[in-house]
């Protein structure tokens, strides 16, 4: 059987660009309660986490499907029942990571809170996605390893996320909560600082991912505030942490319904 390639010439756009699209021969048979489907998707998530660890420790080019299979405790032949190759795995990593970030952004946008609290929720959620989820860090370490078509799709998705962050900053400026400035420049500098954290963060370091997320949120937003004592407007850290964890958990579970 000829393998399906990650190429815009060999498959419909929707199938190529959605990490959750599966060819008919690999779709699990569904029962009335959907358990085979849920088990299949859960196994895919386990595999991509194992792959993310391998990508980060060995490098993308040096990691083979056999290495990923061993890390996921699967036979190489069984691994191909879930993913056709490491580029498909990497795309799934990046796409699912962006899905969680966009979901947190939308929740912040709809929240009845000031701009500081909304931006803080986005920052904490962003960092938890990168530092707590292995596939999130792999996604941002390997931004140019995919073919041109899927890469363009992901860049467009990132642009949408960046625009949303920029609009939160603009909202704070218009409301007088943030100092006036170039919102696009500020958003890019902020996101650059957040994404770079995957280069230096170590799970066995002196600070947990949550502690780093909370501290960086304070530092980044403090420089935008028109009043130095406005940090109290953020809301308590405990609440922000619970919301961020709930967002990630909900989105990890909700992907089972979009196979």
Cα-to-Cα separation, first versus last residue: 23 Å
Low-confidence sequence ranges: 1-32, 233-259
Q: Can you summarize the main beta sheet?
A: none
What structural class do you assign from the helix and strand content? mainly alpha
Element-by-element helix/strand order: HHHHHHHHHHH
Helix count, DSSP H or I runs of 4 or more residues: 11
Oligomeric state of the chains in view: single chain
Computed CA radius of gyration, to the nearest angstrom? 19 Å
Total beta-strand segments: 0
Number of spatially distinct domains: 2
CATH topology of the largest domain: Tetracycline Repressor, domain 2
Strand coverage percent: under 5%
Shape: elongated
CATH A-level architecture of the largest domain: Orthogonal Bundle
In CATH, what is the class of the largest domain?
Mainly Alpha
Q: Please, what is the average pLDDT? A: 75
Q: Write out the CATH superfamily name of the largest domain.
A: Tetracycline Repressor, domain 2
Give the helix proportion (percent range): 55-70%
Textual characterization of the structure:
The protein is mainly alpha-helical. The protein folds into 2 domains: 26-87, Arc Repressor Mutant, subunit A, CATH 1.10.10; 94-258, Tetracycline Repressor, domain 2, CATH 1.10.357. 65% of the residues lie in helices and 0% in strands. It is built from 11 helices and no strands. The chain has helices at residues 13-17, 35-58, 65-71, 76-79, 86-110, 115-132, 134-141, 148-174, 183-200, 209-222, 237-254. Helix 5 runs antiparallel to helix 6 and helix 6 (115-132) runs antiparallel to helix 8 (148-174). The model is unreliable at 1-32 and 233-259 (pLDDT under 50).
